Amino acid sequence: MKKVLISACLLGDKVRYDGKSLFTSNNILQEWVAEGRVISICPEVSSGMSIPRAPSEINGGDGYDVLSGKVSVIENNGHIVTKNFLRGANNALALCKANEIDVAVLAEFSPSCGSSSVYSGDFSGTKVNGSGVTAALLTSNGINVFSQHQLTEASKMLQPTRGVRGFTEALGFQKYLASTTCSAVCPGRLSSPFSGSRTSLQLIYS
């Protein structure tokens, strides 16, 4: 079963800079948790940043510019936290590689997790097109990144691959079903040990 990386705040974890969550109530997300698909992380907390913490923005660019060393990530007090954001992004990438993840759903507008829009860097509340640092690094490594507003699109990416292999596997399963009864199959699925489980990574100092 394919896993999916999720921003921890979207699952209700109070890890945002203001000590709050960005809980997203959605049937698709709930199904993923119940199936045991979800691997969660807050890149910033995983890098050692505190809860709460000063708000941060990318100063005059986006995550790709941070990765290339062109711009920095700064807090509203002027403190440069670029290293933390790069460390958090690499923690997220390591999770994806360890779990063979190629789909991620991350919190939009975050300087780490924004996938199509982030704040401008002057703390005026202005949003600009661009990606956060983690989203940019994951995308650069072939991972499909979506926002919490694109769960349907992300779900389609998790569907089993069709074609010759998918057809033969389905045919084999149909033969298995023909040789057994529903009562022998259904209870095992309903009592799956993965129901309601998820793996969370919040503190990695590397």
Description:
- It is globular and about 45 Å long.
- β6 and β7 form a beta hairpin.
- The longest helix has 17 residues, at 82-98.
- It has 206 residues and is of the alpha/beta class.
- The protein is built from 8 helices and 9 strands.
List its traits.
single chain; 206 residues; alpha/beta; five-stranded parallel sheet; 9 strands
**Tally of DSSP helical segments:** 8
The radius of gyration is: 19 Å
Largest sheet properties: 5 strands, parallel
**Spatial order of the strands in the main sheet?**
8-5-1-2-9
Helix coverage percent of residues? 25-40%
Average predicted confidence as pLDDT: 85
Q: State the secondary-structure class.
A: alpha/beta
Q: What is the N-to-C order of secondary-structure elements (H for helix, E for strand)? A: EHEHEHEHEEEHEHHHE
Percentage beta strand: 15-25%
**Unreliable runs:** 163-195, 202-206
Q: How far is the first residue's CA from the last residue's CA?
A: 29 Å
Number of strands: 9
Overall geometry: globular
